[in-house]
Amino acid sequence: MTADSLLLERAGLPDDLRWLAEKYPREVWQCHANIHGIANMWLQRHDMFRELGGMLTNGIGDYREGRLTAREFARWFAPRLNHFLGHLDGHHNLEDIHYFPVFAKAETRLKRGFEILDADHHTIHEGLERNAEAANAFIRTLSESEDKQRFAADAYADENSRLIAMLTRHLADEEDLIIPLILDRGDRALGID
Q: Could you tell me where the beta strands, DSSP code E, fall in 20-80?
């Protein structure tokens, strides 16, 4: 079984890592005193990734359904894809290098959860690379036949769907691990304010 299929098949964090998520369910996050600062920033950043991923999915759908020409789509698509891929990769690097070690040290019972999230980042990075390759292959077909363009667009759409599915699972699991920890301890106690 491949790492991306494991991420796609995971229904959430293992039960032994959900004790803080049960103490601080999503329904109370927005009214909790510690939701300010890094927790709020984290949720906003994740919402941005969800929104950008949705825009890319909708954009490829518009092209495939004939609402955009290949050239219109490419002009619209390229800067958004680059923004999405670049910011997602940078966000994951910052988490892996700075935040995850701080969080794992602050609550050692969640260390395995941060190892899972770190492994997700590697899997998602591979998906980012496949996504970029499929996008570039599509853009290269713009001077070729419409059939080749459609085939390349379909290949990109498949890669995009897989990446968005992995990202959706990962973001939810990351939030279920990190936001309750921040709510429980606070930014300052964790040393991340």
A: none
